[in-house]
Amino acid sequence: MPGLGDMRARILREVQRDGITADVDNAILTAIQEHRNERFWFNESSASAALSGSVTTLAVPSGFLQMDRLELSASASGQVTYALRGPVPFEDVRDSVNNAVTSTGDPETFAVKCDTLYFYIPPKDNYNVTYFYLKELPEISAAASS
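Above: the chain sequence. Below: its structure as tokens.
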């Protein structure tokens, strides 16, 4: 993927006008800001984490914007990987957590709230978690050289 400097150079070469470097930089930065939540091949990502038994929350991956799919597989038993249903409304999961659910099992659903994933049913075992998500693009400033 081209950097800011590459994009700037290409636009200036194609426009062939002097004195518009700052305007080109501002236009590029505005376009990135305007489209930062849209799906492109370069802002789709995946990550992995470990979920311990009886733990009902995990932090979302860095730069997280939107969860596409969340898969679990039991670390000890080599259980087949399966997708969780969700994200469901946070209130659905929160109500079950606040009601002090004591039973555990294979988590079935998840919700996302305040950069945290909430799982229901509380896990009975340790699980490997795989996230497929839309990620935030890194901040770019007009002073960037590339």
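Residues 28 and 68 are 28 Å apart (CA to CA).
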